Amino acid sequence: MKHYKESYYNEFKNQIESSGRDLLALEAKIGDLKIETPSWGYGNAGTRFKVFTDPASARNVYERVDDAALIHELCGAAPSIALHIPWDSTDDWSGLQQYAANKNLKLGAINPNLFQDEDYKLGSVCHPNPAIRQKATDHLLECCQIMTKTESNLLSVWLADGTNYSGQDDIRNRKHRMLDCLQTAYKALPPDGLMLLEYKFFEPAFCHTDIADWGTSLALCRRLGKRAKTLVDTGHHPQGTNIAYVVAQLLDEECLGGFHFNARQYADDDLIVGSNNSWDIFVIFTELIQAKELASDVAFMIDQSHNIEPKLEAMLQSVLNCQSAYAKALLVDYDELHSTQSQGDVLGAHRILKDAFETDVRPWLAHWRLERGLQTDPVTHLRQSGEVEKRVRSRRD
Ligand SMILES: [Mn+2]
User: CB of 275 within 8 A of CB of 336?
Assistant: First the structure.
């Protein structure tokens, strides 16, 4: 909200309180939403066709920490950074941790890389060759050790494993190979560590992927133990999938570990979350709020790569869009919703969600920021701050 006035907030407050809601109680919950941003969203990234370089982009893990710290400073809602191994590897983990802490940032989920090595052409933990599987397992074990060094409690596993042609490999055997490797890593997790198992229905494999959907991830987590949970990447479903349904199922099974938020048009596009799926994100948050303590440990992370858009602004906008969807979900009167549902009032219940979704929460969030010493419009502030130009100068010398 570019030209915020306190009268906008007062009008909003009157509107909400006239319907009998305790706005301040809801307002106190806005800060509960913490979104982790990914180190890989700050560096140059691209498609299979071309990587367009951005002169402001971060070149190493310290610069990526600088960028994540700036996003948190601007929005007050992104206090940690997810790391990718080996892209973010360093010889001095405690030095990196201290560097981040000095900037009010924590090191977050550790993401192993089991897809970028020549050896992984036919898979990693599912590979037919036991030596390759051992190499993949060793990498997972190394990541568990890094978790201890960085005091991270999440090992966030995404596998590119799969096949391109029917008959290429034995699907059930691949599953058993994968379980063997993952079990070894599971046992090496730090005492408070969780393993998050991400699924994706296609790409880079096109005939089958070894963890294609939430049901497969759930089944694997059940085999591994209570500290293995499913990670939902909002870009990893076939067109038309109702992700809120998936979220509700995983919450009820006590197996929802976290999210990778982003938006998609056709495939795994990694676009700015909320750019074209704000309703979906809103409905996901209504499920999380209704699940109460079942959702208390769910990790919220962004997984995006910014190809043509300015990276800092894209990341900031993503966090703000999550916050906006969450604020709208807080406005739903769940008691009224449940009573309307029990009366079988199809559209009455639907309208309760729509009313909350269509409420303009910008004055509310601007006010929330002001109370915390933040700028009411972080995006405009970033554009005027000179931070991007400063990066162009210092990073391209
Ligand atoms: Mn992801």
Answer: no
